[in-house]
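Field guide to reading this record: the first block holds the primary sequence, the second block holds the structure written as discrete tokens, and the final block holds curator observations. Each block starts with its own label. This record concerns LysR family transcriptional regulator, catalogued under organism Paenibacillus vulneris.

BLOCK 1 — SEQUENCE
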Amino acid sequence: MNLHALRLFHVIASTQSVTRASEILNISQPAITAQIKKFEKELSIPLFKPQGRGIALTDAGEKMEQLAKRLFAVEQQIEQFTHDYHHGSIGHIRIAATYLPAHVLLPAWIAKFKQQYEQVEMTITTTNSSDALKQLLNVEADLAIYGGLPEEYPDTVQTEELFQDELWFVVAPGHKYANQQVSLHDMMKEAFVMREEGSSTRERLLALCRTYNSTNPRITLQFNGLHEAITAVIAGYGASFVSSLVVSPYVERGELCRVYVEGIHLQNTIAVCTRRQEPLSQAAAHFIQMIRQNPYRRPS
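BLOCK 2 — STRUCTURE
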């Protein structure tokens, strides 16, 4: 079907005037008339009939106009969609995040982003660092947001550091090491409550022990969630090694205490990872720009 001729027909039918259609389309009346006659011949259907000094739609023409109106309405919707998608006001962002950004950072980031881009859909998967990287590489996520980068990652991953926080050893207030300074050797004799294998912070603790030729920590209790691990330590069991962003409110309230391990001052990197040399959707680019400008605000 000749869509150009269908558009001419649609404009004539909607304005009920060849003259008006000629003005709107900037095409001469004889040219429009000739194309409509050719279109009717192509379809083997009369679309217009004489009426006084003008024309009117035939029964077939009225039905054709209903269909044409729907077709060109969808065309307008497609044009609007491509415009909105190009400018990032719609779309779908899939995020794989480790516990720290998922629970401490992302809620505020997403709330701020959605205030400006309400129509953008967002899917957040909370997982450990190994699985977050796997989801990114398998194109199951558009962004991976880490609280503590893996020691190695493929060249196909682009990493942008957002900011850093500290990693703390913490215990319950009644623990013998609460607010004390101890050696790494003595600290590793304590029972540890940690996240599951694959957790970035757990890997950092093991790497710390390798660096200082210390024995590995005695991880006697592990949870799939950091909140559960912290709760167990607050209840009085063992020690943990965790981001200050997560536990500083507990320390400030006196529910946990720091242990100052001699010579150990570790930083935890908060970063966003994308697939290198693969363009982001405009919506995802807007989201990254927003978190660059609003990296972290500690709750009061």
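BLOCK 3 — OBSERVATIONS
The first strand starts at residue 48 and ends at 51.
The CA atoms of residues 17 and 53 lie 11 Å apart.
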